[in-house]
Amino acid sequence: MNIQYTWSVESLEKLPSLKLSEENSLSNVVTSVSFKYEGVVQDNDPVGSQNLKSSFYGTCPLLTPVAEGFIEFADLVESDILNAVKALYGVSQMQEYIVKSIEDQMDPKETTTELPWV
Description:
The protein is of the alpha+beta class. It has one domain. It contains two helices and three strands, in the order E-E-E-H-H. A three-stranded antiparallel sheet has the order 1-2-3, with helices on one face. The termini are far apart.
């Protein structure tokens, strides 16, 4: 099964200011990232797998930044944030979750049913 994975940032949490020392402080510091990691089946093998997808949603607290190399909030781009998340979050576990979810869609073990009393 060929799965194409994509990342996206759903939201950010930030502090208005963060004091690093008596003489150093930073403003608008991102402290946490809520993200989506999605897998979409890209092939037709096995039959019926086209258009199947699954998503993993997570929240990742970020490390306390240092003044050197700090990127101002207004200058951040999505790839900056995603690189920080990728460095801290286990991708292999997310991929295992997505693969299992897609396999369950292909061969469901449980189904939703109507209520017997309705």
